[in-house]
Amino acid sequence: MTAVDVRPPLVETRSLGKTFDTRKGLFGRLLVRGRHLIQALNNVNLTVDRGTTLGLIGESGCGKSTLARVLLRLQEPSRGRIIFDGEDITEAGPPRMRELRRRMQIIFQDPYASLNPRKTVEQIVSLPLRVHEKLARKATRDRVADMLERVGLKAAHLNRFPHQFSGGQRQRIGVARALILKPEFVICDEAVSALDVSIQAQILHLLQELGRDLKLTFLFISHNLSVVGYVSDRVAVMYLGEVVEIGPARAMLVDPRHPYTQSLLAAVPRLDAASGRRRTLLSGDLPSPLDPPSGCRFHTRCPHVMAHCRVAAPPLGELSAGHSVACHLYSGQRPAGEAS
Amino acid sequence: MTASAAPVEPLLSIRDLEAHFQTQVGLVKAVDGVDIDIFPGECAGVVGESGSGKSVTFLSVLGLVRPPGWIAGGSIRFDGRELTALTRRELRRVRGKEIAMTFQDALTSLNPALTVGSQILEVLREHTPADGARPAEAQALEMLSLVGIPEPAIRMRQYPHEFSGGMRQRIMIAIALACRPKLLIADEPTSALDVTIQAQVLDLLMALRHRLGMTVVLITHDLGLVAEYCTRVIVMYAGQVVEQGPTRSVIDDPAHPYTRGLIGSIPRLSRLGEKIRPIEGQVPELVRLADECRFRARCPVAEARCGARIPMSDLGGGREARCVRPGGRR
Lengths: 340, 330
Known about the structure:
The structure holds two protein chains of two kinds.
Chain A: E1 11-21, H1 25-31, E2 37-48, E3 53-57, H2 64-71, E4 79-84, E5 87-88, H3 94-101, E6 104-107, H4 121-132, H5 137-150, H6 167-179, E7 185-189, H7 197-213, E8 217-221, H8 225-231, E9 234-239, E10 242-248, H9 249-254, H10 259-267, E11 317-320, E12 323-325
Chain B: E1 12-23, E2 26-38, E3 43-47, H1 54-61, E4 69-78, E5 81-82, H2 88-94, E6 99-102, H3 106-109, H4 116-127, H5 136-146, H6 152-155, H7 165-177, E7 183-187, H8 195-212, E8 215-220, H9 223-229, E9 232-237, E10 240-246, H10 247-252, H11 257-265, E11 313-316, E12 319-321
Parallel strand pairs in B: 3-8, 3-9, 6-7, 7-8
Antiparallel strand pairs in B: 1-2, 1-4, 4-5, 9-10, 10-12, 11-12
């Protein structure tokens, strides 16, 4: 009944990598010895289909936000390709990127830091319009007023400043700014994480509603697994810069396969908990990304670690349709050091 | 839920507490008529969103509300003593020794210029008389290993920035527990931590609670944490306690419309595909509050009676709610 969408996925990454050099300045380069390169992203392959939401979870420092910034080319990738709507945009020049950025937007975590305190709501929300569409003043104002209504604010708020709003309302302003150009792809980087629970629910509702009405494609980044489970069609889990598991949201959150995904889920506090449940499956801290473990990066904390996990990195292999995992537990009896 | 046949004397009993702040926009009643009892040996959860007064209530217990804020009324009894009547010097002897508190942000709560060892020693020296047999250093070392810091003898001499977030939170717990307090108030102990580290820290805290026989108050915005760790929950909204009772029964059958709204706002992994139902509107401004139910403007079942000051109703089974029609649905 529904026509099959033959178009390519809206967003795709191929072997995407990003390395940061932690040395600063000339003296840093001369003086710092030893390890100074951080692989924030390593061989990331993802696709986001049109009109769907890909949830991205992982702990601090796993590379979630770097991925967001690299996708929008706010930071340049070190390796790999970024494909947007079938077009390789990895090396697109500034004029082309400018056109493309109309179609891709980002909503940030902190509704206090991401809005200019000296600008009125009208100025904040209309800025993308003024950059990309040279509309008459009246037309601009109407578009902004219309957008404010859509996100649950009022046209009467046009001339107010950010400090006159609560955190939840500020996040609505951030949403309005991101959607005013009618983008196709929206990245939500911890967009509801700073909000109180009841306000978080309002913004989630709003994003879902707008996503449906405007046919948006989302990359939804959050450390909160329950929130990601609520909004996502598919979920990807990152650990130390690598995707360790990706699959349909339900499968990922009901029957996760990677030991890291399993431990993350076990650690989530639950309302319907039987008290005395064991939440800790993982001991120890995240290893330093400056010196990631050999082999599988998770082997230092993995409860199922085997000998060859320490030497060989498991590839991301498909378990079932659309569900892939990077773990030796599922790669058959692959001998150690097969890659060599 | 335990049968409460023999009345147990609360360890901490807060009555009619009022904590006010003078601000540029007017008088803010951050805590307005709060009654809370904490019983010996329990782990009670205090939940509420920003501005609910949950932190200020317990800062008041420790005498840590400072200008422009002050305790404007009420009583705080702890272990048989009235804390509001103590002098600053007397309160100092209680604080840290008998009641300890940990805070959300371990990095700003620890002194960056002192080694973690010296920060534990400071508490021990302040509160315990010199004891030749058990020098403070040995006790500090013991505390660090108790909270799971590997190689404590080396780590003692390091500074807070040399530790990860989870380790810093452990150090703050070590400092708080150094004098073996009867009551530990943990204010958002894990909100800044990743979920796997959060689980480690809270599991540790609960193990220590049993080992040291401590009473714990867990202040958090996360009802899930309360469900996991607390036998009793106290729900606060806009400076007041709106509901309290045994955790399971409150979560399974909330009596106050706010508690119902809060629970309905939380996406649950066990109910994927089920819609959340946000509470409309926002928390009222705490200046110039009218004498009415504070949740009235957002309440889906508000009625005319809600326009008066609403007392707590006893619902039996250890449960109370501040609502004219507790448990009532439209």
